[in-house]
Amino acid sequence: MIQKILIANRGEIALRIIRACRELGIKTLAVYSEADVQSLHVQLADEAICIGGPKSSDSYLRADRIISAAEIADVDAIHPGYGFLSENAKFAEQCESCNIKFIGPKSKSIRIMGDKAVAKETVRKAGVSTVPGSDGPIDNEAEAVKVARKIGYPVIIKAVAGGGGRGMRIAHNDVSFAKEFHVARNEAEKAFGNGAVYIEKYIEKPRHIEFQILADSHGKVLHLGERDCSVQRRHQKLIEESPSPFLTSDLRKKMGKAAIKAAEAAEYQNAGTIEFLVDAKGNFYFIEMNTRIQVEHPVTEEVTGIDLIKQQIHVANGEKLGFDQGDIKFEKHAIECRINAEDPARNFAPSPGTISLYYAPGGHGVRVDSHVYSGYTIPPYYDSMIGKLICYGSTRKVALQRSYRALSEYLIRGIKTTIPLHKAIMSDPVFIDGKATTAYMEDFMSRTPTDLF
């Protein structure tokens, strides 16, 4: 049984894992960079080991140092959180070979679903619909243009090893395709060390809807409902909610079954997310699987009452899931706002620095996941997200009202944040009516005065 876990991550997700472990009576080891010595997760873990310099490449991405820390501290398991090494099949393999439990799927599943072209082919064979596109990576521009013409413009060029919106480019004709094809490949090479790209039909103004999956090592695969992640900027999510205001009961059932099929096709274990694009007519297409816990997992937790981090640990322990699909109840509506240290009025420029005042909102139906506090200095080396505000209630209307109220109470001074942006969105008629698509943010920013941010 797992008695001690190394958390191979930082920030709010590291703190979230510590809290789950503490409730389960499991000891924790935080690993941290020199820039994160002030972080709350370092202070609250049972033990902490510095593994390198401020840059991710010198610390959180150093699998060798993380494994060494695990061996020194004699841990049973490693939880990778999200980002960094969480979807690195080689790292999962290293853990397995060192007899350390990797709290996530098997390396084989990560490898299958980590290559988007392979993932698409895998789920297609299982009968899950995918976006029309190339059969695999395309290196030759002339061949790529032929594929784009066959699919029909507009098309989207995507990095095989992509994520976070990097290595993704849209082309509307042959001329723009030639340029964007090379830009996407260069971006992918720089960001992921892999310049391979593939091509898909670009679905205009879709909904981005993902299904939370839980699977144990005994063959049981369940879904915990959907999250609507359509409010995005440059393919990076800003707001997530569950249930989706767009899905009908029938469509929800169909997509849930498809999500389970996709996970089964990858022989998946632990928590993961199947992501779909849904067009205006309700046609849905698999786009990828995230083989890790998601940033937005609290939305699902508040709607279902199921602690996903604890379930990850139970599954890693070899335990059976203690409930069936019919036992999962969706009784609330939840909305998550990502609080980023960015200035929306200056094209979302990063805003690292020292927080002079920090006051988190509270009250019924309000949850804040954050690792920062008054006096904390946000380093410039990592993702700009510094917290998540999750508000929930019996209906979407209640969740919206609660979100607006909580955002009005949320005080962070000394830096710029996305709090004012989220507050403006919560009072925007398009979002209130549940009509936001992936094109929403571009439209919202074009018609909203920046002095509101």
Your description of this structure?
This protein has helices at 11-24, 40-44, 63-73, 89-97, 107-114, 116-125, 141-151, 174-192, 249-265, 297-304, 308-316, 396-409, 419-426, 429-432, 440-447; strands spanning 4-7, 27-33, 47-52, 77-79, 101-102, 155-163, 166-171, 197-201, 207-215, 221-233, 236-242, 270-278, 284-290, 333-340, 342-343, 349-350, 353-354, 357-359, 366-370, 377-378, 385-393, 411-413. The protein is of the alpha+beta class and 453 residues long. It has three domains: 4-103, 3-Layer(aba) Sandwich (Rossmann fold), CATH 3.40.50; 132-201, 2-Layer Sandwich (Dna Ligase, domain 1), CATH 3.30.1490; 207-452, ATP-grasp fold, B domain (D-amino Acid Aminotransferase, Chain A, domain 1), CATH 3.30.470. The chain is globular. 53% of the residues are buried.
Offer a quick outline of the entry.
By secondary structure, the chain is of the alpha+beta class. It is 34% helix and 27% strand.
Rg (C-alpha, Å): 21 Å
Overall pLDDT metric: 96
Q: What do we call the CATH topology of the largest domain? A: D-amino Acid Aminotransferase, Chain A, domain 1
Helix content: 25-40%
- Count of distinct strands: 22
* Major sheet summary line: 8 strands, antiparallel
From the N-terminal CA to the C-terminal CA, the straight-line distance is 49 Å
Task: Provide the β-strand percentage band.
Answer: 25-35%
Shape: globular
Structural class: alpha+beta
In quaternary terms, these chains amount to: single chain
Q: How many independent structural domains?
A: 3
Low-confidence stretches: none
The CATH architecture of the largest domain comes to: 2-Layer Sandwich
